[in-house]
């Protein structure tokens, strides 16, 4: 942001400053501290926390969002995110599938789906929960989730960073697999690693195209999981920052899906079966991690993200005021707008290593640079196709406040409030979820 001239934007954030310039309010710091402590855990604590949270506030909007959602005639009934796992329920995130014909088969046969991407492997698999979770805990959902025998079918979500661990995990949980069974698979690794997967697990592989998987996944989650999508409001307090945006099944389409993985895919989605990958960019999550590991001592994504949350980008970015001495009013560019990302890091003409910058400031600048760029690109594609809602998916987002704030700000700023930025609870699992559901994938054996 900062290189396109837009005069008098109508709806920016309340005080009109770019999101990265206001200091984190004290209340919010508590959340970050909580996150810092948890980031040492092996699982994905930030996402799991949200997935399992029951406290997000749901709001209705004038743009056609309803609460609770009314399912369309032929839509699958609602799945429900469970706030707190009951006894014997898994510790990892899951949703319970409604007890209906479409899912009945998963009571008897396990289904496993993997999305093997350029950085992460995401797994979605079914399991049956034996214990009696009280129906009251599924309040507000007028569906049955238990079969006559009291059992419920769960869909579980888990991510891996390496293939050997994935295979070991699948051998452990998928004990009833037989040679005729199939593993559902998507992502680049469904080609690259197909032989090793089939050999190690002794099953056939059914491949679903990556884009088709994303669309199937987002369609299923939006149309059946009432509390799937939400907006982010940085200036609100505490849990009010996150607001559910359930949407009626007949109003879901069209929308833009911006999937931020290692790289970025941008899809214009007109219906579950009519979509087009209209754009892409190599400046995505892989760029943040790659440059972050070159420029900071962070050892993994969580550390880098946590560093970014502590940093002050103004020490490394050149702002408009660094160049103009104040705002550039003629163009409506505020004094504190980033004019050049990392432009203060230039050491040409100076003694080697004279100027040093804090890694957290660099991490913050990097996160803003990548997120601002994605936000502006998303806005441009949204405008080009006249779309009013942009859903952001992919594991890069991690429901991180800086990332979501920057994306939302960019969309709101450039579209003058006309386009809405939306996030998804199962952001990183769209592809795995879609391939889990696909009955028509191509068989490899
Ligand atoms: N724990 C983590 N480890 C590694 N990367 C993470 C982690 N958490 C978030 N990320 C971010 O998620 C990105 C990967 O996202 P995702 O899993 O959606 O994409 P992918 O499927 O691996 O890539 P692609 O779709 O481009 O093939 C990483 O590049 C990184 O920015
Ligand atoms: C190559 C894929 C589709 C693999 O998931 C993804 O990383 C991506 O969309 N990269 C961006 C490629 C582009 O510039 O269009």
From TrEMBL:
Q: Name a GO molecular-function annotation.
A: phosphatase activity
List the EC numbers from the record.
2.7.1.33
- Regions of compositional bias (Low complexity) in chain numbering: 8-19
Domain of life assignment: Eukaryota
Q: Does the keyword Lipid metabolism apply?
A: no
Task: Write out the catalysed reaction.
Answer: (R)-pantothenate + ATP = (R)-4'-phosphopantothenate + ADP + H(+)
Gene Ontology BP terms: coenzyme A biosynthetic process
One cellular component term from this protein's GO annotations in UniProt: nucleus
**Listed SUPFAM superfamilies:** Actin-like ATPase domain (SSF53067)
A single Pfam family it belongs to is Fumble
Positions of the UniProt region annotated as Disordered? 1-28
Q: Record keywords: Transmembrane included?
A: no
Q: Which UniProt keywords apply?
A: ATP-binding, Coenzyme A biosynthesis, Cytoplasm, Kinase, Nucleotide-binding, Transferase
Q: In which pathway does it act?
A: Cofactor biosynthesis; coenzyme A biosynthesis; CoA from (R)-pantothenate: step 1/5
Q: Where in or outside the cell is it found?
A: Cytoplasm
Question: Enzyme group, top EC level?
Answer: transferase
Q: Which NCBIfam families has this protein been placed in?
A: panK_eukar (TIGR00555)
- Belongs to which family? Belongs to the type II pantothenate kinase family.
Which protein, by its recorded name, is this?
pantothenate kinase
The organism of origin for this protein? Caenorhabditis briggsae
């Amino acid at each position: 942001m900062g290189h396109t001239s837009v005069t008098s934007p109508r709806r920016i954030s309340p005080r009109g400053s770019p999101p990265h310039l206001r200091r984190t309010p004290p209340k919010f710091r508590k959340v970050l501290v909580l996150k810092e402590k948890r980031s040492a855990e092996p699982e994905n604590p930030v996402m799991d926390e949200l997935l399992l949270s029951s406290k997000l506030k749901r709001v209705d909007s004038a743009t056609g969002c309803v609460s609770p959602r009314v399912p369309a005639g032929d839509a699958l009934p609602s799945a429900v995110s469970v706030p707190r796992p009951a006894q014997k329920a898994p510790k990892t995130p899951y949703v319970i599938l409604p007890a209906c014909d479409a899912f009945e088969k998963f009571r008897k046969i396990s289904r496993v789906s993997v999305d093997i991407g350029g950085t992460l492997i995401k797994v979605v698999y079914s399991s049956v929960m034996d214990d009696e979770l009280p129906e009251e805990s599924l309040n507000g959902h007028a569906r049955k989730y238990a079969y006559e025998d009291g059992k419920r079918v769960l869909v579980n979500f888990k991510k891996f960073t390496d293939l050997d661990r994935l295979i070991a995990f699948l051998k452990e949980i998928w004990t009833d697999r037989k040679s005729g069974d199939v593993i559902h698979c998507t992502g680049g690794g469904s080609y690259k690693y197909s032989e090793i997967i089939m050999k190690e697990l002794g099953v056939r592989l059914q491949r679903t195209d990556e884009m088709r998987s994303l669309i199937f996944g987002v369609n299923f989650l939006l149309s059946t999981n009432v509390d799937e999508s939400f907006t982010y409001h940085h200036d609100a307090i505490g849990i009010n920052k996150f607001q559910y945006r359930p949407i009626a099944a007949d109003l879901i389409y069209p929308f833009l899906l911006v999937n931020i993985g290692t790289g970025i895919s941008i899809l214009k989605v007109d219906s579950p079966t009519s979509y087009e990958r209209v754009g892409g960019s190599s400046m995505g999550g892989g760029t943040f991690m790659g440059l972050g590991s070159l420029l900071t001592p962070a050892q993994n994504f969580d550390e880098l993200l946590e560093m970014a949350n502590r940093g002050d980008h103004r020490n490394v970015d050149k702002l408009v005021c660094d160049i103009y001495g104040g705002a550039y009013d003629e163009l409506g560019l505020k004094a504190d707008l980033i004019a050049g990302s990392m432009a203060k890091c230039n050491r040409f003409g100076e003694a080697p290593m004279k100027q040093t910058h804090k890694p957290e400031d660099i991490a913050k600048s990097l996160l803003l640079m990548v997120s601002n760029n994605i936000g502006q690109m998303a806005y441009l594609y949204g405008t080009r196709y006249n779309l009013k809602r942009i859903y952001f998916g992919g594991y890069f987002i991690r429901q991180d406040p800086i990332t979501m704030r920057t994306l939302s700000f960019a969309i709101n700023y450039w579209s003058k409030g006309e386009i809405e930025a939306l996030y998804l609870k199962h952001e990183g699992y769209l592809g795995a979820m879609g391939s889990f559901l696909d009955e028509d994938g191509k068989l490899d054996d």
